[in-house]
Amino acid sequence: MLQAIGLTSARHRGLPPAVDDLTFEAGSGSVTALLGPPGSGKTSTLRLMLELEPGRGVTYFRGRPLHRVAHPAREVGVLLGDVPGHPARTVRGQLRMLCAAAGAPASRADEVLDAVGLVGLGDKRIGTLSLGMDRRLALASALLADPHTLILDEPAEGLVAREADWLHGMLRSHADRGGTVLYTTRDPKEAARSAGHVVTIDSGRLLADQEAADFSRTRLRPRVAVRSPHAARLAAIVSREARAARRSVEVVTEASGSRLSVYGSSCAEIGDTAFRHGLPVHQLADEVGDTGPASRPRDSGVLGDGLRDNGLLRDGVRDCDPLSEGEGEGGAAAAARPATGTGAVAATSRRAAGGPAPAVESAGAQLPPRIRRRPARGPLRPVRYELRRLFGVRSTALIVAVTLVASAAVSVVLARNGRAPLPNVLVAWPSLLPLPPAALGAGLLGALSFGDEFRYPALAAGRGTVPRRLGLLLAKLAVSAGVALSLGSLGVLVSAESLRLVYGGDLVQVPSNVMSLAASWSGLTVGCAWAGLLAAGIFRVTAAGVAAVLAVPVLMVPLIEAVPKAPTARSMSGLPGRLRELTWLQWPHEADRWVLALVRVVAHPVGTALTLSLSVLVCTYLFTSLRGRVRW
Questions:
Q1: Which one of 39, 263, 512, 582 has the largest count of C-beta atoms within 10 Å of its C-beta?
Q2: At 389, is the secondary structure helix, strand, or coil?
Q3: Is the pLDDT reported for residue 80 higher than 50?
Q4: In 3-state terms, what secondary structure has residue 225?
């Protein structure tokens, strides 16, 4: 069961909140529709439930708030908007990447592809999918970890009737297995056809919380709105005459007591009745129930803890078939419309009075099998996700290729005049460039590491455990460091071979301080990668990561060099021995030169600027993570 209690979004610039003290429930084993017009706060409600927006209130998923669920992906499957992802990534590669993040085996991707009818499109690029295929992929992403609850934001928007009926058939199948389904919609007829429970909101407030039969009877049928100071007497007369004439007429008294809703009659008949009995009428108009909010009837009770209003008069109301008397698509014609689709169900529409869910007639509409064995949690799970994310698109290989070609070209040009030092030539770092190509490439790859986690619907439910999870951060840091070291090493090797090819083998010689240079070069490439990664994770924008990398040589280094130096410099000789005495550690004396080399790297203006930048970014990332209820 899903329970949302007191959801209230934060105010922005004095405007009223998009969601205001909203409370409702979505039971297990049923499909619940969150109904409202555009701008009513449906999407904001879902984002508040998933802790993706600041606000007040709490949502319990089977008795636990989301930030206390140990494995959110196995509890909640999410579809928010379109399926994002790199257009060049394949459908199967996208799902396998999400499997690694959700802790599901890689074979699960093929199972859900078969369930949603995309088994033959696993190698198709995401950017080439049609809208119907895109929605199927979104549902597959939500079902990857076999969640108990599905939360979907207008999943059938823009789909043809066949695809929409297939989608709702899948949702009903999930509910029949005991799951909870909550989806938003702006179409009352769609809610009546496909949901067993309807929660109606407007301007972020609860208007009605009804079963589908009650919703259809009170909201979807044509009615005559009557306002009269003698509404109670007029209601009794209309009901008495309808019984005498054996006509199916339903009269509902609204909460104010002066307004009636008459179903099964017309304005002319109600006007004639009021005229014959000398009753004044202040309003007489034809209405359709889905054009306005449902009002609380006079005799309606309060359910549960007084937080839900069923919006209907039960006593003295004839329980008629709601859809058989509706108009247009809301009537029997829409209820009987076939729901066939590609690999889908031919779902005969369920009557809104609460009939049984339609049987699944095609194997293509069956839900994927349950995950039999829960995968063990461990540090390799986020590492697998990060590796699949990194190498699942061609942009990574393209960045590496461009970086290596640029390094070779700059090295050849730089060595032509013969005045540049050999280390600068090997790393392709002329004084005109703020950073060498390998460091810029590592920083760009680091900046691209974050961003997808904030957009993937399958990971939206795990905001506290995926984008802000420390385990994933460590995995990203480790993978980006490995890529940066590999890119830096390949850049030097490619530059050396290019110089050997163009100028001969005499130019390239191993420097005497090769270890110190290697440590400096490794620190520069890894530091740039981490700076781009952390900045992109904090601001959720790739451009912010690139800007953080460029800010080190462009802003930080000139500021550090502008600091006036002391007239007499002090020597740091003997530092390893003093550190050994301070920490009570006895490391080999050969490690002293490594400690001194590290200190010299940090003392360099670029090293100092990079160290300060990384320190600020790490502190900011941890601060924002703690505020976001971080978990491992």
A1: 263
A2: helix
A3: yes
A4: strand
Type of residue numbered 601 = V
Residue range 283-310: mean pLDDT, rounded = 45
> Residues 144-154: pLDDT tens digits?
889 999 999 99
Beta bridge mates, 58: 5
Predicted confidence at residue 566, as pLDDT, reads 52
Cβ-Cβ contacts under 8 Å for 191 (sequence gap 6 or more): 33, 35, 185, 198, 212, 215
Q: Regarding beta strands 55-61 and 2-9, do their DSSP bridges make them parallel or antiparallel, or are they unpaired?
A: antiparallel
Cα–Cα distance for residue pair 252/574, rounded to 1 Å: 92
DSSP state of 448: T
Residue 288 pLDDT class (50, 70, 90 cuts): low
Q: Per-residue pLDDT tens for 299-358?
A: 333 223 332 333 322 333 333 333 333 333 333 333 333 333 333 333 333 333 333 333
Closest alpha carbon to 33 in 204, 194, 214: 194
pLDDT tens digits for range 4-38: 999 999 877 778 889 999 999 999 999 999 999 99
Question: Cα(544)–Cα(535) distance, rounded to whole angstroms?
Answer: 6
Sequence-separated (6 or more) residues with CB below 8 Å from residue 450: 467, 476, 533, 536, 537, 540, 542, 545
- Across the chain, mean pLDDT equals 77
The residue type of 174 is H
Kind plus residue range of the DSSP H or E element containing 61? strand 55-61
pLDDT digits (tens, 9 = 90+) for 414-450: 988 878 888 889 999 988 888 999 999 999 999 988 7
Q: Which residue has the tokens 């090997």?
A: 426
Give pairs for 264-270: CB < 8 Å, separation 24+: 264/320, 264/325, 265/224, 265/238, 266/224, 267/224, 270/224, 270/226, 270/234, 270/238
Closest CA to 503 of 442, 434, 426: 426
Give the separation between CA 215 and CA 352, rounded to whole angstroms: 8
- Name the nearest CA neighbour of 529 among 396, 354, 409: 396
Q: Is 119 exposed, middle or buried (0-12, 13-18, 19+ CB in 10 A)?
A: middle
Q: What is the C-alpha to C-alpha distance for residues 573 and 588, in angstroms, rounded to an integer?
A: 17
* pLDDT over 70 at 268, yes or no: yes
442 token code pair: 């590592």
- Three-state secondary structure of 76-117: EEEECCCCCCCCCCEHHHHHHHHHHHHCCCCCHHHHHHHHCC
The tokens describing 52, both together, are 């993706």
- Taking the CA atoms of residue 240, residue 246, residue 252 and residue 258 in that order, the dihedral angle to the nearest 10 degrees is -40
What type of residue is 607? G
Separation in Å, CA 372 to CA 314, 341, 369? 46, 29, 8
Alpha-carbon distance 330 to 334, whole Å?
A: 6
Task: Let me know: does 458 contact 142? Beta carbons within 8 Å.
Answer: yes
According to DSSP, the β-strands at 197-202 and 30-35 are parallel
Provide, rounded to the nearest whole percent, the portion of the chain with pLDDT above 70.
75
- Name the strands in the sheet holding 222-227, side by side, starting at the edge strand that comes first in the sequence: 250-253, 259-263, 222-227, 283-288
Q: Give the pairing type, strands 308-309 and 302-303.
A: antiparallel
Write out the H or E segment, with its range, that includes residue 224.
strand 222-227
